[in-house]
# Entry
Amino acid sequence: MNKQRIIVIGNGMVGYKFCEKLIDQDPDRQFAITVFGEEPRPAYDRVNLSKYFAGSTVDDLTMATREWYADHDIELFTGERVEIIDVDNKEIESVTGRRMGYDKLVIATGSSAFVPPIPGVDKKGVFVYRTIEDLDQIIEHGRKVKTAAVVGGGLLGLEAAKALLDLNLKTNVIEYNPRLMPRQVDQAGSDVLQQKIEELGISVLLQKRTDAVLGNGSVEGVAFADGSQLDVEMIVVSAGIRPRDEIARKNNIAVGERGGILVDSHLQTSAPDVYAIGECVVFNNMVYGLIAPGYQMADVVVDNLLGGDKEFQGADMSTKLKLLGVDVGSFGDPFAEGDHIDAVSIRNTVKQTYKKIVVDRETNCLIGGILVGDTSDYGTLLQYTQNQMSLPECLEHLVTPPASGAASSATELPDTASICTCENVTKRQIIDAFEDGQTTVDQIKSCTKAGTGCGGCVPLVTDILNAQIKKSGGEVKTALCACFDHSRVELAERMRTEKVKTYWEALGRFGHGGGCEICKPAVASILASYQNDFILNHQNIQDTNDQFLANIQKNGSYSVVPRVPGGEIRPEQLIAIGQVAKDFDLYTKITGGQRIDLFGARVEQLPLIWQRLRDVGLESGHAYAKSLRTVKSCVGSTWCRFGVQDSVGLAIRIENRYKGLRSPHKLKSAVSGCSRECAEAQSKDFGVIATEKGYNLYVCGNGGMKPRHADLFAEDLDEETLIKYIDRFLMYYIRTADRLTRTSKWLEKFEGGIERLRAIVIDDALGICEELEREMQHQVDTYVCEWSRVLDDPAMRRRFAPFVNSDESDPNIHFQPERGQKKPLVTASSTEVHV
Amino acid sequence: MSQWIKACGIDDIQPNAGGCVKIGEHQIAIFNENRETWYAVQNMCPHKQQFVLSRGLIGKQGDIPKVACPLHKNTFSLQTGEHLGGNCAYHLRTYPIRVVDQEIQICLQDESPSSSATQTTQCETQHAQ
Ligand SMILES: Cc1cc2nc3c(=O)[nH]c(=O)nc-3n(C[C@H](O)[C@H](O)[C@H](O)COP(=O)(O)OP(=O)(O)OC[C@H]3O[C@@H](n4cnc5c(N)ncnc54)[C@H](O)[C@@H]3O)c2cc1C
Ligand code: HEM
Ligand code: SF4
Ligand code: FES
# Structure
């Protein structure tokens, strides 16, 4: 039988989703699918486009690789715009002249950024914010200038503003309306939002109509209708979107009065067998500029093509602002007014939050609302709105929930409640999945697809699952994984007291099943924390980094980081590092922890490299392990005119004492020679700042994603007491922290907080300090450099090879030059192959 | 045409762990449970197309033996090659495997076009379209 041919025009998010859904729901493959995309690459995640600024690569954003299309026999032509639709002969023609017949045609051409016809917008330095190419240009131009403005203070404009700020530009947002996000937020909400945005360092200009872009060739500023001007060197226009309906217009397919391809509730256009979905569509006078409605449209068309009769009913336009670091949410219709419409709002000027809900008194339902500054109730309130649930008696409780108020939403929701709007999964489906034996969030996700779109509903899915588990008499687990019902802390305690010696013993005695990638490294870490035998005696339970005593990099090569205690290094060691890097062609970089990272080593080179490093007395830096990383130091009293103690000497002592100590997560430390704190000790898991009288100890600080200033733990300690307290502190952390919990998070959850911790570590409230010190001393006494062990053991050395049956090196690891060194060349999906 | 080929010796692979064999242009990851039950799958992780799976940790999800990719911890069934997170875009090729006299043998069947996933020249996979 000849397959019917479907052609999809546009390979954006919705066009891709259409393919995915069709393949999923049509296992017999009645259709042959061909996709034309104008952009040079396969569909990518536009919603998360801004992450491109934060380091995500094109690869990261790609929805599916070219292989995925190939594997599913989807013919994909990228970089090829479709120009002609011949609806009479059912044929299309692309810009390259390729003609192809179709049985069904799906238009998913999306939209483009609307650029108002302001004089001067064609100047160099004016950009839009829609595609990867746009972003590349913004980044490129942003390097050359210092100031920028975003024209348009809506959802996208604010996202763009944050991106510009992250490029270190002085950023302004210009909005024509008297408020920001005019479509989602009211004046009071905008006021709070504006205050928060200005705190980030972005200037906000409201009620400013941009009349002209100034400059001679390139942008130098903008002029406003009120006569004022603003000097900027770069502009991003974010004044709304325009559906890309040109292909319909040119080929006599009906479009809406104000643009957009006209469709009925089956998403059929005016031409037979031609459908349109996504942002290019106008339905009931609405253009849906969000992803969830687009996905719903894709679903409707797939259903119809396969003989179903689903209809598109319009969609909810609730949204949250993301990434800016300011929480804003708007749902339903927050601007509704009328006889029986009531609004309740509350503005907290201290916490800078604003919350408004709009209620229909007649039906007793929530119609919409606005949340600024705190969107933790967004999910609950959205559910009330979408599912027309009856409201509680006391409306204020919705705005300021009583202590236990919000959490109940999972149980209160009706079964028909749509939980995942991206994939259209109801609460009933989640409960059914649970009753079918899917008892973990992961299982629910893979079975129902809930939470696999934008991911915003995962907390709610978890709540529903947990409520269901409780209801059926089960216990909500803090279990380490499917193999152990214990938490890490419970397991560590039993392994410690019962002196368990191997993973298999632990699994046999306390666990069940065959083990997995979560408990194996967790148990390996516990074994190392208490037993401290050679970690490669347990090689088959270590994560790959611990297996090869090096950090695996994105192309399967490894990095090498020798320990440089306290950051102090001898010239001959530096020379050796340089020589090794040269001989093995390694990329070198100074790390943030005062040592040198050598990248791009092949697995079989690792022992050879370490041999040379050991020859000059360098040891493993454990950069690959959850253990002590570095103890950073400042110059200290030896050289610095302010220093009051020898910070370098102490840092070296501390680093050598705790090196190799395996712990629930990595540990970082620093020592500063005086209160000027050049070593930034207060951002470390444990940090020391010298005083006239001795040392102040700080604990549980963190840099990274959730920075936290360390707490002052004890003051003016002499060196021996300091070491004693750190011994106890670290061992107690190892005993009681959950897997992959840094000290800062551990302290946050620690009952009794820093006071209690002090009582335990300093005053020995639990009577365990002697034991803790003994455990630490055992660690210190049994330390050996792991690399040294490997080098002396020929059988171990042999394990460092890419293949077990050949001496070849891996032909797949490639590098390319950059700034006089090398970097990984990851071919596959990152290289564009134009077809 | 199918053909059994020597991959390596039993002792070449650590118990309850994996190793990679290179056969012609193919990289195949071999795993075992207690050196009793053996599995062979492509060494390339379909997520980022890196040849790393043999260095992943193995385990069980219920009764299904699995491997977790060392790069981003996607997990795959060692029996069927299925992505255990439910993403059907990621699928591992599996190979019949047997032990004859302490020697591990793998059966390479007729190479279908999609088998380029195991070949060591990554660009091959690109052009398949
Ligand atoms: C920065 C940014 C942030 C966003 N954030 C959110 C958010 O937080 N939440 C949310 O819900 N939505 C968000 N959106 C909106 C969301 O990205 C869109 O709703 C979604 O991308 C629409 O998908 P689409 O497939 O309809 O259109 P698109 O993704 O635009 O895809 C259309 C594709 O078709 C191609 N094309 C056009 N004409 C032709 C032709 N004639 N031939 C071949 N190809 C053609 C285009 O080049 C394009 O690649 C955001 C958008 C941007 C730009
Ligand atoms: C079960 C599904 C998935 C899991 C569990 C998962 C998990 C992860 C994890 C843990 C990281 C590591 C980040 C780090 O350490 O720096 C990561 C990175 C990444 N993921 Fe996923 N991921 C999944 C699916 C996907 C999908 C479907 C895509 C894209 C289509 C994707 C794209 C990426 C990219 C591009 C990176 C960055 C890789 C790098 O820079 O080296 N992931 N993922
Ligand atoms: S912290 Fe004090 S001692 Fe150390 S370098 Fe800075 S000023 Fe000098
Ligand atoms: S490369 Fe295997 S999970 Fe990412």
Summary: Confidence is low (pLDDT under 50) at residues 402-408, 828-835 of chain A.
